[in-house]
Each structure stands twice: as C-alpha cells, then as structure tokens.
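#struct-pred
JK: can someone run the complex with iron/sulfur cluster? inputs below
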Amino acid sequence: MQNKFEKRINGFYIDPQIFTAKFVKSCDTCICSGECCYYGVYTDKKEYEKIISVKDRILKSMDDSQIKDPSKWFEQPEVDPDFESGIAVGTEVYNGKCVFLDKQGFCTLQKMAIEDGEFKWKYKPLYCILFPLVIFEGALTIDDEHINRMHYCNLMQNQTVTIFEHSKEEIRFLLGEKGFEELLQYKEDYLNSIKEEKIAIEK
Ligand code: SF4
Ligand code: SF4
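RT: done, structure tokens with the ligand placed:
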C-alpha cells in the first residue's frame, strides 16, 4: 500500500508529527478516571483468544461495576487489515466504560498481570498500550479522533511534552530496542530538517 510517510521501521510507517505534537507528561487516572477506556477498544483476534483463555482469573480481579459474564465482553469479529491477524474484535461497553475498566479507573487486564507478578502488558491489547498513538493504514500515528474526546489530556494547558516523550516506553515495546534506536535517529534527522526549513524561510 502507498503511504504518505517516508520512514518505515519494523514494517510500520512513522508519522513524524509524533515528535512535535503535544500531550500530557504522564497519565493520571486519579484526574482523568481512565476516560480513554470509556469507549472500549478493538483487540486483535489473537489478543481476544488470549484474554478469553484466562477469563476465570480475570473474574477474580473484577469489581461490582463490571459485568461477570464473559460472553458479554466482546463484540462480533470483523475484518480489519490494521490488525496482525486481519481480524479485529471489539470489547463491549458496560456501565459507560470498557468491560475491563474497574471503578477506580484501572484496566483489569493490566491490574491482574501486576497482581500475578507478570509483565504488566501481558494481556493488555496493543491499541490500549499505544494510545494516544494508533496504527492506522500501516502507520504509527496520532489518534486525534480519540484524543479529541478527552477532557484532561486533550487540554493544551496540560500538554507539556511531546507525544513521543509521553509514549517512549510504549513505542519501544512496539518497535523493539533496535527499531527504537532507528526511530531516535529519524527523530533527530527530522527535527534538524524542520529547523533548517524554518531558517531558510526566515532568511
Ligand atoms: S490517555 Fe488521557 S484519558 Fe487515557 S489514561 Fe492517559 S491521561 Fe487518562
Ligand atoms: S482493555 Fe483495558 S486498557 Fe483497554 S480499553 Fe479496556 S480497560 Fe482500557
């Protein structure tokens, strides 16, 4: 597929706006209540299968604001080429939030991994890990549409770092160490090129 972005790392095109667009320094669910999880998320079919395989464990970490019937946790699968398996399965919304969001604003999938001493993102869907970034048409880019719905991290006065700075750990997770090093080099080259363009315009 033809893509408008020139740089590609580990199969993902890179939208250079991730180096300049602003966001909050870090997430604080005490302030935002995990608002980005109010709409549910699309998981890859493989992620869906992994989550369902540990449904009994998930149930133990859910609270009384969450639905305990696993058959009500997911929507019907649908074809989507932005997912590794080519199939996306959305999580359902219950009580005005993703079925996996607890009443304190924590993701049960992440909470339970931490409780069990596992890697924190073992069960967490990739698109949840990446937000405010998203993979759209093969490119790692900014999820403007979803950011625009937010009432805390979307406010300019709260946006003090770049999305890249905010999401370093998540990007490293996606691209791997080598891919992340390549991204750092691309970031430097890109920022230098826009600086040079600006100087040329001002002359
Ligand atoms: S992305 Fe925004 S809404 Fe989601 S946890 Fe972070 S600050 Fe809260
Ligand atoms: S799976 Fe977890 S992180 Fe993703 S939307 Fe649901 S509660 Fe939020």
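RT: quick notes.
The radius of gyration is 18 Å.
Residues 42-124 form one domain.
JK: thanks, will look after standup
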